[in-house]
Amino acid sequence: MSRTDRQADAPAPAHADAEVPAEHEVPSDLALAAEFGATTRDQWRELVAGVLRKSGREELPDPVEDALSRTVATGVRVAPLYTADDAGDLPTAVGVPGLAPFVRGSRAGGDPAVPGGWDVRQRHAHPDVAVTREAVAADLENGVTSLWLVVGDGAVPAEELGNVLADVYLDLAPVAVTGGLPAAEAFLALVEGRDDLAPGGSLGLDPLAVHAATGERQDLTCLAGVARRAAAHDGLRSVVVDATVFHDAGASVVEEIGCSLAAGVAYLRALTEGGLSVDEAFGQLEFRYGASADQFTTIAALRAARRLWDRVGGVSGASSESRAQRQHAVTSSVMTTKRDPWVNMLRTTVACFAAGVGGADVVTVQPFDAALGLPDSFSRRIARNTQSLLVEEGHLARVLDPAGGSWYVESLTDSVARAAWDWFTEIERAGGLVAALDSGLVRDRIAAAWDDRAARLATREDAITGVSEFPNLAEKLPERQPYTWSAPSGGLPKVRAAQEFEALRDAADGAQERPRVYLATLGPVARHTARATFAGNLFQAGGLATPSGDGASGLAEASTTVACICGTDKDYAESAAALAKELRAAGATQVWLAGKPDLAVEGVDGYVFAGCDALHVLRAAHEHLDLSAVMAINAPSGEGAGA
Description:
single chain, eight-stranded parallel beta sheet, five-stranded parallel beta sheet, globular
């Protein structure tokens, strides 16, 4: 029995104005914090400053919370504390679910086509028709409510679309295709004459995404004709604004949303110039966004995107009902790792949670092995069960916009919306998205955003579990069939957060023998274990084994010329310079020290510490161990993973 069948009689999501039984009413005079004294922000700041000074911070910013703030997107910082004082500048009209400005959701209740939850959409791109047909059947029988088929060379052949969908009840399961005009034409030919298609499908036309990926201008004049044919089928949309092409290039949510608005406006112009009314044009668009494991940023981004699209609709003259942005959230390819891929299950669970809480109409969880190749039946099962767990066991969709009203979430939503709108208007001033792509404006802006993120990744401020932190050098990666399509080139790049660390791991794995960094410890275990553990974790992130020993005694047995001294500051002052000399006498030609540079130990080549540029350290060690040539040989030519 499918999830739709089981939930046919499921109760509607809870509403704020639902009638509450008298015995369950909370007394209006209940003082939950009566035993706690009032605390001001200034008092909190004094306490924070005291803690920071005890941790060694001598110079503190004003206000002190700036020391604890972090950047989550271009021009968007998150503070450590939000109170009612922060609500003063926020828009008061966030509305209610299903009504403008749609911040709290595009629907007043659950999707009528998917009682009790959002649309669970699984992606299929296997070129073997029999394999895809079997996978489609397994998905629909086990919780998936709609299909997403990648059509074209290296994926599902357009001429085999009918065979792939032969066992699918198209009046029950919406189908979305990706593959340009040939895919759209193939699907329209398949359903010609039918009037019972399940609403929620998509023809996936997105010429601007192709332009962004290839650098080549595309024809938009065909959109209106296809849209009129799609309009013959209730709920079938012709155009997808696929913002994941910007997300996958390294954009923050600000660039992703701003570019999606610019693409949406370009499509509105093309559709209305082709004869569609404004409302009809709005009804032909679906928006696709990346959902990352940065939970609250993803929630805020989806809310902000709906608010801004409503604003576009308002100035375009669209009716209030047509301005609700239909959103398809896809778990991020950027966050997906090849190494320790099992951790991707946790990342996609958080991303799926954020997409659901953020109000996405459709959610796709990418299989945990997507970066390795074509997923198998196990990884697809885990992907769909992730959503089933959140919807059916967690009842996540039973409450609309559960994050709404939080000072933090509302403030973050507002900050993202303002920054994204500024970027959108900059694109429009440059002549629109086509001109901004041609001029390099979009590429340069996204590159700057990625440079900021890459710097945080290099220092492990943004840690990647299983890759830059807590790597497993003994892991055996699952084998997967490689993708058979060629990644587009000539336009925006495709990046992954783990790519630089994984390149180092590949180089180390490609050596005839596992390369090593010897950890030369000072003093008893209690004194050196903290820094030895830290240094070992850092060097292992580059695929380097880290045998250890007392002083220089174990260097010869470690069979390496790179060493790292580990101990306490007191031990360093007494013995580190002498140990560095002993290590060099024993054959070490590169010596690191686990500690900060202000220790200034004679004979040391560099320092490893929390916040150091780990990639710089690892590349220097690799070069010294003559692994750079191996890295060049193992460098990938391109990847096919991603949405």
